[in-house]
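User: I'm writing a tutorial on reading structure tokens. Could you give me a worked example: one chain, its sequence, then its tokens, then a sentence or two explaining what the tokens reveal?
Assistant: Sure. Here is the example chain.
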Amino acid sequence: MRQLPVLLAILYTINLISTIHVLAFIMENHIRCFDDISKKVFNDEGVTTNSSSEQKYVENLILKIYKQFEQKASIDPDLPKLNKNAHAKFLKNALISLPQSYTCLDASRPWLIYWILHALWALKDMPDSETLSHTVSFLSQCQHKEGGYGGGPGQYSHLGTTYAAVNALSIIGTDEAYNSIDRSSLQKFLWTVREVDGSFALHRGGEQDIRGAYCAVSTAKLTNTFTEALFDKTAEWIVSCQTYEGGFAGCPGMEAHGGYAYCGIAALALLNRTKLCDLDALLRWCVNRQTSVEGGFQGRTNKLVDGCYSFWQGAIFPIISAILAQDHKEMIETVLFNQGALQEYIIVCCQAPDGGLIDKPGKPRDIYHTCYTLSGLSVAQHGTGANDAYVVGSPHNELNRIHPLHNIAPHLAYNALHYFIRHPPPVKDKN
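And here are its predicted structure tokens:
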């Protein structure tokens, strides 16, 4: 960890509004003790609301869990432990067969595949090559003849499931996986959902929001179907979604939200247009989303902690560090959130006993939260990637590192991009 005077010099040099709050989180970047945590409980200032009551309930529940954990940790110094084998078993079973409760996600099957494969890769426990080949074949059935991927065989293309399918195929990373993508029709599909103001609809005739812009630019970058014309005005439209709070909303005029904020800054970084946004305000907003008692992140102001925001909020920080490092090289080694507290929340509070991860204590496990909570744990362990991993508990807890802009492995993103550079699609643009 950097010395405090150096941090102060760096942060004052770049004139961050949130300097004091950022430093508070950095200086707390260690295993927290129960007595310190319990002093930070929510103060409703005598005004009880539904939100304040729910916040107090969650805090009390988590304080009990932390108290029990502290007692166990006094006996076993290797605690907390990530139950990797149980999580991998849960995910591998889900890749083969899902319970009836997942019927509602029939239009999200590429998402399910991506969440499972990415989580297994993070856990260092990928399926065998035959299973991966079958997965490529299934995703090929989800590819629409007019370009892009639908939620299942025969379904219309959607930017979300297209992004998920491309990420899943990049994780598999074989020639079979790469060659299964029809990039000429993919590029045509991207043009059909592009609006004149630079925004993207999630599907033909669908709503335009910042998720569409991110999914489009991430997909185009990975598959080498990106062109300047395709994303003309997109950065400007994304910046119009930044709110008075500092985060990004789904579309102009709406509330700042963790998932949208990630999509906004990640898309701007991929477009190399981050200077258009108010980075100081974004950092201040993100820092204030890490909860004091729980240690995890909330998605919006005055909302409850949720394991999935470990990634949606947590991954914003290494992106910001990388942006600041363009002018201040020291920032690439500076982690701007409490890595230890986030790891404690995930490993102590968010593991289902029989495998899988959860939103918060009392919630059921699911594949979505398993994926993004593990992604957030990886971010918390590896920070900006410039230093050695900082792992809470047993060294066995360490996960593989992820690329904060694509949420797949850095080398897998690199491999996909360079494969597609060497094998350009027959059609390069709309015209």
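What the tokens reveal: The radius of gyration is 21 Å. The chain is about 50% helix and 0% strand.
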